[in-house]
Amino acid sequence: MGPSSVVLLPYAPSSVAVARQYLSSDLQEWGVYETVIDDAVLVVSELLSNALRHAHPLPSGQIKVAWQCTDGYVEVAVSDGGSATEPRAGRAALSSLGGRGLGIVEYLAENWGVRHEGDVTTVWAAVATADTVSNGHAAVPSPAVRECI
After folding, report:
1. Are 144 and 4 in contact (CB under 8 A)?
2. What are the Cα distances from residue 141, in Å, to 4, 22, 65, 145?
3. 35-80 pLDDT per residue, tens
4. Spatial separation of the C-alpha atoms in residues 77 and 58, rounded to whole Å
5. Could you tell me the domains of the chain?
6. Cα R_g (the chain), whole angstroms
7. What are the residues whose beta carbons fall under 8 Å from the beta carbon of 130, sequence distance 6 or more?
8. pLDDT tens digits for 88-124?
9. What DSSP string describes 132-147?
10. What is the maximum span of the chain, computed from C-alpha positions, in angstroms?
């Protein structure tokens, strides 16, 4: 398993920018290509925005965002307190203001899915990399946990 990070964020729209910044910084440090970083940051933005719009916070009142580099992929995941509906990619009308998030994720990621563990729902996506880490073996303590208030 490669380098990984976990960030606990407030259940608030401002957390999207914070998650994007942390993810981008980590992936740059780990030697991931800029185009892959851009895709991963957009994917995490969509997953986190969807969680904030459609799901409940975790019991702590927060939302968890995690990422790792493994086997030629950057895997990102957003965990929340679940919702009444299952996350799925839809077909938004051209005039719709929203409804494209998981379609964007589906386009950019090699694969994505949903895991349920008790009251926690995690939506994850794997973005492919040609050479995820420039030296092939980045050594980062696992997992780095940050809590942003």
Report:
1. yes
2. 8, 16, 17, 10
3. 999 999 999 999 999 999 889 999 999 999 999 998 889 999 999 9
4. 14
5. 4-147 (3.30.565.10)
6. 15
7. 33, 36, 72
8. 555 544 454 444 567 788 889 989 999 999 999 999 9
9. SSTTS-----S-EEEE
10. 47
